Amino acid sequence: MATPGHLEIHNVSKTYAIPGRPLVNVLSHVGFDVPPGAFVTIVGPSGCGKSTLLRLIIGLDDDYRGDILLNGRRIVGTALSRGIVFQDHRLLPWLTLEQNIGLSLENSGWSQKEKVDTVREHIALVGLRGFEKAYPHELSGGMAQRAAIARGLASRPEILLLDEPLGALDALTRVHLQAELQKIWETEGTTMILVTHDVDEAIFLSNKVVVMAAHPGRIVEEVAIDLDFPRDRADGDFVALKRRILAAMGEDGGRAPARAA
Q1: Whose C-alpha in 146, 187, 204, 234 is 20 to 30 A from the C-alpha of 154?
Q2: Is a pLDDT exceeding 90 seen at residue 209?
Q3: Which of the four pLDDT bands, split at 50, 70 and 90, describes residue 29?
Q4: pLDDT 10s digits, 85-94
């Protein structure tokens, strides 16, 4: 089982230079805390900087102002301590399921037995036992995304970043995998950060939802989700939280409230 990480984002701002145009302010003074083992979701309209923020957390870009700390240390570059799952599963088509998952352990320094055992455990974790020798084209979309989640978790990262991992799936498969992802999180205890446009998904999975606005990307509210698991989307408290988050996003025609303390 992974040792969950503590992520702290302090006053982060990010600009892009576009030739012939003024600097584009993508993120402005973004800050929030992700306690060890928490599941935090970031929601907001396109262009609010959600995916840019994930790039900074994963370590693909260090050109920003402010601080991003994992367990008290500033993040510099990529590392096995931070895993990521994308909307596209990105499985290599010439490798089997177990080989694709094993690829994430190439630089782990573990023994061959440790790698084999870990791959087997994570295939079982995501419910794909029996498909070890299957190639990506032999898997459904939902199965391929489960494999991507297993690959992201196999190196036992302190934090797993999920960039719209269920966004390309059909509605029924998406709802099913939301439930599976919630169970995986409870089993593994890994700190998780999800980016999604789906407010229902955010409430269903998270301890906290961070609501962002665009131009520039900034936090307008942090909403604690105190509902017991498993969660019922038709429950009155669930619906009330959805209304609150949509209001913060400005999707009910109202003004976004000030960010909660």
Answers
A1: 204
A2: yes
A3: very high
A4: 988 888 999 9
* DSSP-assigned letter for residue 217: B
The domain limits of the chain are 7-91+158-249
In one letter, which amino acid is 157? Answer: P
Separation CA 152–CA 114 (nearest Å): 16
Quick: pLDDT tens for 15-28: 988 787 778 889 99
Tens digits of per-residue pLDDT, 216-240? 999 999 999 999 999 999 999 999 9
Name residue 193's amino acid. I
Query: pLDDT over 90 for what percent of the chain?
Result: 67
Q: How far is CA 140 from CA 93, 145, 200, in A?
A: 13, 9, 24
Closest residue by Cα to residue 225 from 242, 250, 248, 246: 242
CB atoms within 10 A of CB 57: 21
Domain 7-91+158-249 CATH assignment equals 3.40.50.300: yes
Residue 139: closest CA among 195, 182, 93, 204: 93
Identity (one letter) of the amino acid at 67?
Answer: D
Please choose, from the candidates 52, 83, 67, the residue with its C-alpha nearest in 3D space to the C-alpha of residue 12: 67
Mean pLDDT of 244-257: 69
Q: Can you spell out the DSSP letters for 58-121?
A: HTS----EEEEEETTEE--S--TTEEEE-SS----TTS-HHHHHHHTTTTS---HHHHHHHHHH
Strands 218-224 and 208-213: antiparallel
